Amino acid sequence: MNITVVGTGYVGLVTGTCLAENGNNVICVDIDENKVNRMKNGEVPIYEPHLDVLFERNIEAGRLNFTTNLIQGLDHAEVIFLALPTPEDEDGSADLKYVLGVAQEIGQHITDYKVIVDKSTVPVGTAEKVEATIAANTSTEFDVVSNPEFLREGFAVDDFLKPERIVVGTSSQRAEEIMHRLYKPFVRSGNPIIFMDEKSAELTKYAANSFLATKITFMNEIANYCQIVGADVDKVRIGMGTDSRIGKRFLFPGIGYGGSCFPKDVKALHKSGQDVNHKFKILDAVVEVNEAQKTILFPQINNHFGGNLKGKTISIWGLAFKPETDDIREAPSLYMIEKLLEAGAKIKAFDPEAMENVKQKLGDKIQFVDNMYEATQNTDALLICTEWSIFRTPNFSKLKAQMNDAVIFDGRNLYDIDEMTEAGFKYTSIGRTAV
Ligand SMILES: NC(=O)c1ccc[n+]([C@@H]2O[C@H](COP(=O)([O-])OP(=O)(O)OC[C@H]3O[C@@H](n4cnc5c(N)ncnc54)[C@H](O)[C@@H]3O)[C@@H](O)[C@H]2O)c1
Ligand SMILES: O=c1ccn([C@@H]2O[C@H](COP(=O)(O)OP(=O)(O)O[C@H]3O[C@H](CO)[C@@H](O)[C@H](O)[C@H]3O)[C@@H](O)[C@H]2O)c(=O)[nH]1
What we know:
Layout: E1 2-6, H1 10-21, E2 25-29, H2 33-40, H3 51-60, E3 64-67, H4 70-76, E4 79-82, H5 97-109, E5 114-118, H6 126-135, E6 142-146, H7 156-161, E7 166-169, H8 173-183, E8 193-196, H9 198-229, H10 233-241, H11 262-275, H12 281-293, H13 298-304, E9 313-317, H14 332-342, E10 346-350, H15 355-362, E11 367-368, H16 372-376, E12 381-384, H17 396-402, E13 407-410, H18 417-422, E14 426-428
Parallel strand pairs: 1-2, 1-4, 2-3, 4-5, 5-6, 7-8, 9-10, 9-12, 10-11, 12-13, 13-14
The protein binds nicotinamide-adenine-dinucleotide and uridine-5'-diphosphate-glucose (UPG).
Pfam families: UDPG_MGDP_dh (PF00984), UDPG_MGDP_dh_C (PF03720), UDPG_MGDP_dh_N (PF03721)
Binding site for substrate: 150-153, 205, 250-254, 258, 322
Binding site for NAD(+): 30, 35, 86, 121, 153, 264, 329
């Protein structure tokens, strides 16, 4: 099938590449000329495991092409995916200017039947708005489909190629058949393509993300309570998670959820509710608890240094909002860095993939180093913000010998408390105290 994907960020580029991998002819359109030129030169502009191999293979096969010219993309395709940003607006709602702007251009330029597929995360009723915007500019036939994306950064290629489910919202039989034909190769294992109306599809995405954010937040509150009463949240987590009704996943406490989706999507659903006088009380609490959770380790670090962090060096392992990505949007590390800098601390940081993005944001406000042990040379404490695999089994003797003081604040509960105490570390984690 001839496909065009508009927007080549984490979702658009993965979508375009994976659709090409299944034999479709794909054009990816982006307004960022520099990004398009880099991709034309064979460079993957984001870090996403396994994407590079598929990217190269499909470019070589001639199935994956890039342009800044939307009209070229529209002429090429039967199906046009919108993978555009829907950032948080000032009032918490999702800003639809990118989606509706492109919808207007589509209306102005299509000359034959198209299926316009919205993959961006958008509030209930957006498909109707997209449809009205296109219809106001053309008399050509078209259908608008809501097809929310559930991929996780770091696993995006796998999630796209082998989805647990595909949700498609459409009221058009013609569009449903096309979407079924397009997605059939991705669900050969038997996982479902779930067809529904557009509004339900749009809400499914917000409901799923808000539920997962709530699950994490609930565990963060349990963890904070464990800390007070002397229980161990990791034991509680395993005790709870083995109940299949609860499930083992997304129960890991930490320094808050971040990323480009959960923070903005929880707020957008909350705002959509407000707009129709429906109060999502639970989401109010989720936002509030998560805000506090992002800096929950700060008072403990500050107390350790007697309330004076001036001139102290704190090393940070992990800057990305989660492992296996270079994405730093709403990363808890950034909130901790802000607090520590405000208090006068110096920061030495290491992350396997995200340092360049942090450098662009913070410049030389913090020091970036090339490896995890360089970060801990002559440092006063180590703070772990992201659970990259390489941080899981460090050489503790080496660490201890290098550090001015053997002090670790672990925002991701990577190590065994008793082992750390035996090894002579002062070790603070989330929701666990040494017995
Ligand atoms: N990142 C994720 O893991 C993820 C997962 C599921 C859903 N989503 C949703 O998908 C959407 C896209 O997210 P993302 O993370 O890929 O965004 P992103 O910011 O990484 O990428 C968006 C791209 O769109 C381009 N763009 C902006 N305006 C354009 C225009 N007029 N024409 C062409 N290109 C344009 C930008 O240059 C950028 O390359 C959002 O609604 C997001 O909520 C994201
Ligand atoms: O037990 C857990 C699981 C996750 N997190 C945090 O939650 C955030 C989000 O993690 P994750 O969901 O793995 O990453 P995303 O790539 O943001 O993916 C989410 O957001 C995407 C964008 O909407 C959706 O497509 C995915 O289904 C949804 O999982 C990160 O800060 C994690 O550190 C925890 O604190 N504890």
